[in-house]
Amino acid sequence: MARLLASTNGVPLKVAQREADPAKFLPYARHLNEDMVALDSGDIMLTFELQGRAFETADVRDLNDWHTKLNGLLRNLHDERLSIWTHLIRMRVDQYPGGTFKSGFAANLDRAYFGRINRERMFINRFFVTLVIRPGATGSDKIIQLFKRRVSKEVRQGPMIDEALVELLDDKARDFEKLMARCEPRRCSIYEHRGLMFSETMEVADMVMTGRHRRVPVVRGHLGGALYRSRTIFGAETIEVRDADASAFGGIFGIREYPAQTTPRQFEALLSVDFGFVLTQSFTFLGRAAATEKFRLRMTQMENAGDRAVSQADALIDAGDDLMSNRFVLGDHHFTLAVYADSMKGLRDHMSVARAALADTGMVAAREGAALEAAYWSQLVGNFAWRARPAPITSLNFAAFSPFHTFPAGSASGNHWGDAIAL
To answer: Could you tell me if residue 9 is left (phi over 0), alpha (psi between -120 and 50 degrees) or otherwise beta?
Structure first.
């Protein structure tokens, strides 16, 4: 019995047979350098953390200008081998700055204020953007990558990576840093802590899976093997992330129908909710020919069906003209919103609030059931095959869905009068 349990990582055999091996959902092979990671498929990725931009007091003109600049960013980065993944992670924190006080009154005031703050649940919004280069995006590349993966398995060295693709990703990353300078992008990389090496990129992936921050070490073997530390159990509509000290319950929303219009303040209601969540989006660029074919196919479908939606037909014609005029680019988009709670009752309450917030955007949200497991794993960068509802949208739409809006925050250290002493 002990041997049997050991072979299934301590999980009873019947349960282990029902649960899929998580290794196939964690496609991260190894670090190519300090900030780039190679995937099992031959893709390579690089993750940034962004500070976001304050929106509450911004003028409408400034918000629209920022939206236009984001669209310009996507147009400049356009390459059918490139995919952009964004994550908005809202997580609970218990951070209060320390301080020394010469005045007894100041010390008492700080103690009383800390007691007041400590009674509230505090959350922060963190933004991450990952650039992924997919060498197998074109037909000829797919044949080459298939051969490379077969050779790599034979010599057991992981995926073979073309240096030209590494240079391409680095060029795209430099462009991204320059064009997004106002959001202070910072590359996630390997760092040292107490003599050991840890991967920030994998820590982001772990946060996406659990909604919590934990250090992830750089291991000698498969990099994804260091990620699966919390057991994930899938029910009909609910996920349980079971850790050693606690369990979290989650549900996931996807988009059933997209809104007729998109605006830069589409998801602002989610930025202040009283629970944690992970909002995942990906935008995989389409080439000009593939994008044009999408519009042509849709027009043909409407004509063959005798669809009399004149306004939609006119909108498609205008959009096709804008595409050819390079006013925007087209890409395949996918969206998931994973909501978490400490109990099933809390999850029901949080899901209701999240559904209402999504309804305010004009979209029709669907709670994932049969596709729950696929939706969960599709949150991880590089899991293209697990995206449940990918749909083509424009770069203008994506810039509205992912504007990196947040609330202003000061610096904890490095201030003119010294370190911060209160929140």
So the answer is: left
